[in-house]
Amino acid sequence: MDKLIEYQIPHKGLSIGQHDYNFHVDDKFFVNKQVDTINGGNLEVHFVLDKQSRLMQADINIIGTISLICDRCLDNFDYEININHNQIFKFGISSDIHNDDIIYLEEDNHFIDASELIMENILLQIPIKKVHPDDEDGNSTCKTEQLNLIDDYAKREQTDSRWDVLKNIKFDD
């Protein structure tokens, strides 16, 4: 993706040793990645690439907040994340052994796409149940007006009157 070119790290021609990269992830990043579960964010990424003769090791640190939709009240809330991840890159053709911590870089690959690693790590931090965090007293911080509207709507839903006659059927036990 040309829109995320600033997240491309050229590894061909890098000298052996450590190389530091810093990235800022904002709302545009999530729009370009076409992620529906995240409404935006403000994150700082520190990417340390340690190049050796046959492999590279990346230490990725992601700190900041992402904007999620609460499953309970459907309002946006900020979710703080702090990620530390290690990734190994090996040069050559991938082996048959499946290992998520190793990415194989073929000879014609000149760049590491940091945006993919950043996105993958952020998505893995999203909880299954996304709700506003509780306050200091343990009370929900969801919008009460929205919760009341949802409750009112649920109470208004009635069954189809054509089926009410079936409720009067008596079964012999």
Question: Overview of this structure, please?
Answer:
The protein is α+β, with helices and mostly antiparallel strands. The protein has one domain (2-133). It is built from 3 helices and 7 strands. It has helices at residues 27-32, 114-125, 144-156; strands at residues 8-10, 17-25, 40-51, 55-69, 76-91, 102-105, 111-113. The strands form 2 sheets. Strands 2-3-4-5-6 form a 5-stranded mixed β-sheet. The protein has a two-stranded antiparallel sheet with strand order 1-7. The longest helix is centred in the C-terminal third of the chain and has 13 residues, at 144-156. The chain is elongated. The mean pLDDT is 85.
Summarize this, please?
By secondary structure, this protein is an alpha+beta fold. The chain is built from 3 helices and 7 strands, in the order E-E-H-E-E-E-E-E-H-H.
**Helical proportion?**
10-25%
Distance between the termini: 67 Å
Task: Quickly count the domains.
Answer: 1
Low-confidence stretches: none
Tally of individual helices = 3
* Main sheet properties: 5 strands, mixed
Arrangement of strands in the largest sheet:
2-3-4-5-6
What percentage of amino acids are in beta strands? Answer: 35-45%
What string, H for helix and E for strand, traces the elements in order? EEHEEEEEHH
Q: Which keywords apply here?
A:
single chain, 3 helices, 7 strands, two-stranded antiparallel sheet, alpha+beta, 173 residues, 36% strand
